[in-house]
Amino acid sequence: MPTRYDHVLTGGTVIDPASGTHDRLDVAINGSTIAAIGPGLAADAALVTSCAGSLVLPGLVEGHTHIFQYVSQVGAPPEEAHLRRGVVAAADAGTAGASTFPAFRKLIVEPADMRVVSFLNVSVLGLIDFRFGELLNPDTLVADDALETAAANPDVVRGFKIRLSEDVVGEQWETLLKKSLTVAEQAGLPLMVHIGETSEPLPVVLSYLRPGDVVAHCYTGKPHGILDGDTVLPAVLEARDRGVLFDSAHGRSNLSFEIARRAIASGFLPDVLSSDTSARNWRGPVFDLLTSISKLIALGVPLMEAVTRATVRPAALLGLDAEGYGRLSVGGPAHITVVTETDEVELPDAAGNTIVAPRLEPTLVLHDGGAVEITPWRGLPS
Fold it and tell me: Which residues neighbour 79 within 8 Å (Cβ) at sequence distance 6 or greater?
């Protein structure tokens, strides 16, 4: 007898924050599309995959990473570090600037087997090498170049990025931030602002930001973070209330378990849960987005809230929700990440601390219905 479905994932716990689903259900796929979600679908399938004991999630959306491989010293391999670890769409956060964007598009975006977008660096240079601040020469912020690149590439450029650390902008932080905000305003796009070791306290920086702008590294342990002792700064709460977004952005040096623990205990969860993967950290301490999710769950973020902030929330920020990313919906694309919880392992932050906690590991990744080879987790060096 002919079957109704090409492939059914059966017996798993389906978690889809976009619809509020958290239930044991089957997911049926025809070609590249989700054909049905519900109980008892496996009998009508040509191929059945048991997901018993696993979580069936929307394909993960990475809101902050560095994947400009081959050109930037900080670029991690997109597929190996992301797609093969459960991420089906990712936003490069300022590795490419206007002058390097054509190479980023040709080398990374076009050949990628996953969806790649960009927060364009306001410096024409982009983040080519961490050792040299891309805005120490303020003339590298060429507003016309940034605007022209964004206008010519609306399918990829979804915002702008500025790093406000003192070693990147020097004493020109305020002038450069204002110019960046003007660029973002003219383009109608958000500005992502890297904090940690800024020359001024965070409330001064936040006073400039608009609804929809993004503060990256909200759990940084570096000076001028979001806390005063155990309390979230009033200026941070006010900024969130007016629509400024906060991104966890683990990174090599910007996730402190102690800061995250205190902030989460006070109810301050990130709007976007991201890894800030780069060539410097994807083999540790960051590893991948799922490991970053696992760390914040261990520190108190509820599972549904963590999944929300790594699927539907970043998809909306990046305009990828219109393409069906970040959700599981009948008639939508079959972007699915199936994960299981491992035994407890030692997990590091970016400040030299460790916790022992379970880790989420991908067992099946589908992008447009096609199965992706999974890269095994390498763990901490022995």
Answer: 112, 113, 114
Q: What is the mean pLDDT of the chain?
A: 96
Say what angle helices 257-265 and 289-298 make with each other, to 10 degrees: 60
Structure tokens that stand for 234 in this block? 């009033």
Quote the crossing angle between the two packed helices 143-152 and 173-187, to the nearest 10°: 30
Q: pLDDT digit string (tens) for 293-311?
A: 999 999 999 999 999 999 9
CB neighbour list of residue 36: distance below 8 Å, 6 or more residues apart? 5, 26, 27, 28, 330
Alpha helices in 66-172 (DSSP H): 78-81, 101-104, 143-152, 166-169
How far apart are alpha carbons 128 and 5 in whole angstroms? Answer: 47
Paired tokens of 160? 């702008």
Q: Within 13 A of 44's CA, how many CA atoms are on the CB side?
A: 14
pLDDT in tens, 143-162: 999 999 999 999 999 999 99
DSSP category for residue 83: G
For 36-66, the three-class secondary structure string (H helix, E strand, C coil) is EEECCCHHHEEEEEECCCCEEEECEEEEEEC
